[in-house]
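Quick illustration for those who missed Monday's session on complexes.
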Amino acid sequence: MKPYIYDLNKDSLQSWLSQQKQPAYRAGQILAWLNQGVPDPEKMSNLPQSLKMAISEAFDTRGLTLLQRQDSAEDGTSKYIFQLTDGNIVESVFMIYKTGTSVCVSSQAGCQMGCRFCASTQAGFGRNLTAGEMLAQVALIGRDKACRIDKLVVMGIGEPFENYEQLICFLNQAKAADRLGIGARHMTVSTCGLVPQMLKFAEDAPQVTLAVSLHAPNDRLRRQLMPIAKRWPIDELLGACRTYLENSNRRLTFEYALFKGVNDGEEQAEELARRIHDLRCHVNLIPANPVPGTELSPSPPERVRAFQDILTQHHIPCTVRRELGRDITAACGQLRRRLEEHEQSH
Ligand code: SF4
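Prediction with iron/sulfur cluster bound:
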């Protein structure tokens, strides 16, 4: 299989160009096109025809094909469905905040983590994405929206720390001045709590914000919602959070999706406050979406408010996540799942 053109970095591109007896400055020209979301060599208008042909022969220049885009009529959010060369499907989301534009990137086609509330895992696992496939999601969306992407969050389909090396390579490429030039402080990586990788991440990328999907204040409840909690108890998870905070000057984010009658009671809010009161953190409360095929249902707004009030009384910074793209999304992974079911039934 040919390497995907977005997986080339400046060094690998320059060494390929020198084999082609082409000047090294062509690498900068090619990367500039890729950064602008143009992987088709025929459209790289400042390259000679012979080089365009050589690129087409040597590399996969297709990679991600846009299958579908859904636009929110409410707030400018767009959801993208891309098909990879091997037929796997991933989702990415473009969002607009007061502080700039952001892309939510998928790191795997599907997920093996088995969180009970998540459509991405119900649709099964395809494979890990390469760093180039993650990079291309951002570049192609930037081109489609004709704007610079200011921030990225790795919170789409997949557990990024299951694909650790490619994740780090992607973050480094996204940060590089000759690639997307997005500052590490404008990046967030979300994990369901893979402790060894969290500890490594604290050393490899302390500038990047870590978001930990907690969803429960104790092991008993967390194990009901997330199988990963059987592997690493909450004390170990919070220990890894402390290590990250010691290495980083960032604040950690805890994601907490609220499910009616499961994890949204006052007792759970008090227990959560006790667990995390000494951590430099912020809690993102997520009014959960109903996920077809599960009995979990969203907490009513008054429960969400009561939960937030308790954390605030304990001086824990806490916000209720703004539901961007409410009219198009439902939970992450659902669109992919629906598309695959559609394909299987035809
Ligand atoms: S919530 Fe995240 S880690 Fe859990 S199954 Fe879904 S994609 Fe995987």
